[in-house]
Amino acid sequence: MIGSALVSWVANAQSGSPAPRPEEQPSLMKVLAEHGEHDIENESWNAYGQFTYISSWKLSFPALYTNLNGSINSLLPEAERSFTGTATLYLGVRLWRGAEAYFAPELISERPLSQLRGLGGAIQNFELQKGGGETPQVYHSRVYIRQTLGLGGQPVAKESSPLQLGTTYDGRRLVFVAGNFSILDFFDKNAFDIDPRQGFLSLGFLTYAAYDFASDARGYSYGGVAEFYWDDWAVRFGRITPPKDPNQLPVDFRLFKYYGDQMEIEHDHQIHGQDGTLRLLAYRNHENIGRFSDAVATFAADPQKNATTCTSFNYGSLNASAPDLCWVRKPNVKVGIGVFGEQYVAQDIGVFSRAMYSDGKTEVDAYTSADRSASFGTLAKGSLWSRARDVAGVGVNFGWISHAHAQYLRLGGVDGFVGDGTIHPARENSLDVFYSVYLPKSSLWLTADYQRVVNPAFNADRGPVNIFGVRIHGEF
Amino acid sequence: MASFETRRSRGSAVLGLALRLTALCVLASLASAQQQPSVRGFAVERFYPSAPGGGWFVMDDLNISGGLGGAVELTSGYARKPLEVTSPDGKTRLTLVSDEAFADAGIAATYERYRVYLNFPIPFLVSGHSGMLGPFQLNAPAVSVGTNPDAVSDPRIGFDMRLWGKPGGLLRLGAGAQLIFPIGDRADYVSDGRYRGMLRFLAAGDSRAFSYAVQLGVHIRPLNDSPAPGSPNGSEFLFGGSAGRRFTVARDWTAIVGPEVFGETAFVSFFTPQQTGVEGLLTTRFERIGHGRNLRIKMALGHGLVQNFGAPQWRVLGGVELFGEFSGHGK
Fold this sequence. Notes:
The structure holds two protein chains of two kinds.
Chain A: H1 28-34, E1 45-58, E2 80-96, E3 99-111, E4 137-150, E5 155-158, E6 167-170, E7 172-181, E8 221-230, E9 233-240, E10 259-271, E11 274-289, H2 292-301, E12 330-346, E13 349-358, E14 372-382, E15 387-400, H3 403-410, E16 428-439, E17 444-454, E18 465-475
Antiparallel strand pairs in A: 1-2, 1-18, 2-3, 3-4, 4-7, 5-6, 7-8, 8-9, 9-10, 10-11, 11-12, 12-13, 13-14, 14-15, 15-16, 16-17, 17-18
Helix pairs in contact in A: 2-3
Chain B: H1 2-35, E1 38-39, E2 69-86, E3 93-111, E4 114-127, E5 131-133, E6 136-138, E7 142-144, E8 156-164, E9 172-180, E10 196-207, E11 210-220, E12 236-248, E13 254-266, E14 276-288, E15 294-306, E16 314-325
Parallel strand pairs in B: 1-6
Antiparallel strand pairs in B: 2-3, 2-16, 3-4, 4-7, 4-8, 5-6, 8-9, 9-10, 10-11, 11-12, 12-13, 13-14, 14-15, 15-16
């Protein structure tokens, strides 16, 4: 039961990994296996798919100002609707002993709230991508090879699922991954076996909001990951590509010059017979990014170097009285460290928490504008009320920005997501409550979701914001 | 008052002059635009890989048989100068697409004599040289893995059927259809921006150590950018053939070595050089068949026999296919 329960998530078009599918859930692979046409426990190939449509309605909210002095990153105070539609095909094939290859083409159509501006770590829909549009776009989300070298220990059975061939690994093993993937396919991956597309909608629960992992605008990266599993312990290291310019799609492949490094230590445990997991994750990015303090100092020394006079990549702010990071981008380092824990407390009920502290000296390069974040929540499957495939959850997410970041925003600066023209700095708080109803024998889930964001974009002068959402999600 | 009228008449004159200048500028720009029509691009790649498990690079061995089965394939290649265009007066030649590299990932499901498949082309590199050819402004594509890290262009879904003949026999006849979805960007020269389709009649056979395959078909292509040089002129006729000899190279492995020749010509100017491309490949494929999961490794060197219309100066290809029945009894 533990193996079929909950979680805090991960996964989306922007990153994250699909979760294993429960044994009783219908799929093409299970149909083939039932007809004797497929060995689902020792697969040479598999194919899965999903589609998800999410619609969000933001109600109008109070704001002392919006896009002050020509700044451009405010969440608009009038009512708005946003949506995403995604469809993904997950293909896997075994190449040789221990080697698996995965390919996942994906389609997305989207309309964000306020052009995906004005929220920190509390972006209401984790599927949203930077630079997306309503015209459907098809891309390959993942193309990678995974080589596993067994080192003995207790066998660990892996069920057939998206991005996972059904097989048995050694409990002690070395795993090498190379290619194009989401770093969240391997890092900060939750153990509760629920697909993220059945869970929280808020981006704040995808991973640490302050984990500015290197990736392109969709949340995917090129690079390599090495994992070492030793029974209940796992250690992993990954080096991945950053975007050429912050939050943009083009990728910088100079992995020895610009890169995102991360390391994670993981331990699985039991408390009173209930499974749990603890993780410690640290990252260090070396990227072409700007420091807030440098931008402020440059503007103070020469006001002509403001947000409207940029001669290199910038976000298009029209605030001539504001500093801008465009003047100070150079190779800089960004670091952060976080802890994550999840624990079953009863059958099909679990709690989780994660918190991360990033240095807050430099701008967001890929994920969210939060410099520090913490989230707590609980998730439950519906076995208590005889609807074992339903999922319910409630969680809160907190985000902070550094003093240097706040000073930059106070002067009217903008980064990839936030910048109202000035700021009354405050902790961005968000609440996410949802219920996903499983439609029997259909592999479809319908979700109702409510979110409340207080101090959007870390600004106490705006909000609170109420957002209602619905989702339909199907798997095959 | 006089002063006012004077100012007004001066103002009117200035306004009139401004309007005339504006009109002249607009007319000039329109004239310039008319003189320099810009070509929007199209799907330049003429190498349409065979279905996953199809054997040859372009032709199809039609060895579709057995129970429920499938195939996965990954083909990758590089083409040099796949699009050189000549000005209408024949005096100037421009290498609009000088380099093109791609991968193509595909999956197929087979049952008895039927096959359905899905292919995803992934452009790695499409680049060239911009320029003017006569009145036409031709803008070269600039695609690279860095700028387009996750691009997929124009996937296709297809259906093939072996109509007559047995696997391994002297003659097999079949037919196939494909639908190509226009998701790529025309400016990248990876898409027409319109749906396309193909209908193909296929033949293949084996005789002792020799194999062959032939195709004739129609590429239903709505795009007609005439008179832009080098651009598609609507639907095309597809043709091609291949022949090879089989060698045993190891206990479980055989190699098939032989040429493939394929091409296309626009119906509106049937087999005129400007609207015809023909390409030859010297192919070698290594196969391990009948030992559980079947494996095929393919390599080819190609040359544009009629280097027009997308046939490159030369190309190199490599591919891997895994195929067989799902129950593991081999093909």
